[in-house]
Amino acid sequence: MKKTITLLALALGLTVIKAQTATVAISFETFTLSPNSAYSNTNSVAFSTSSVSFQYKWDTGFGFWSGGFAYTNKYDSATAGFGNTYGVKPLKGYNSSNMYVVAQANAILNLSAPSTTVDGFYITNTTYAFKSIRNGDAFSRKFGDTTGTGSGTTIAQGSYPDFFKVTVKGYKNGTLKADSVPFYLADYRSSNNALDYVVNNWQWVNTNILGEVDSLKFYMYTSDNGQFGPNTPLFFGMDNFTIKYSTAGVHELSALNETKLYPNPVINDLIIDNSKNSVLNIQLINMNGSIIKEEKINTSVKWDLSELAQGIYLVKISDDEHSLIKKFMK
Description:
The protein is mostly beta strands. 8% of the residues lie in helices and 43% in strands.
């Protein structure tokens, strides 16, 4: 019944419905900043593209960026510590782009396009997190070390199974999706210390498994935790955030619209006049949605419908991208 109603609606409107998939890669290069600066809004206003809104939080009491995302063109791959919250270890954005974003734990972004899936994005360590993991600092111990929180254990010095990861979770209409995507920004869990690593370049994270989403939240986890929570700086860099979304539009494609059916009503023969001589697929469909006859043509054809019962019929005309429904009577 649903199929029949759909066909009737198409037939009566004589419109072409095209299902499309648009891919958008957000590189953040369209944002503008003074040299060596970062997005700053003391009212905690999100920044947006045409399809994605990136949440942003500012702490008015202490006067600093306290959560969400911030786009930046600060290039510092050397300075350790909290004073360098915007620099990333690769120095610049993916493929040496001028702009990228830095995010904190629990950052949220919202997607405005319909039926959106997120292909993925490039990720890397901030300089702050990288230096803390590699060398330790006043708050964090050097990854692998057992002289800090792991001291007194049976784990050999330098072999503590540390990790630092981002887990991406998707939501649709406020409901958490079943799947999630983890990515390890540092991983010392292997028994072979030679396999320990801290990410220092841009790496792709594939998030297609999340399916259709309208928001993402980025959770961060570390093995180095103290009395007041995580000791590792919970920051990461992101670039080339890529989404796919479905669109539907009305198209007036001449090769389809100029295909004529006559006579109407039909007595015996139906002429399908393909004046553009393009390759078209033609289907004869009854009002129950059943395909009675189908043929691929590249010129005009004549169908013998003398044995067809009286009634209303539909002809679906389509090419590789578009389809058009026309109706006639017998």
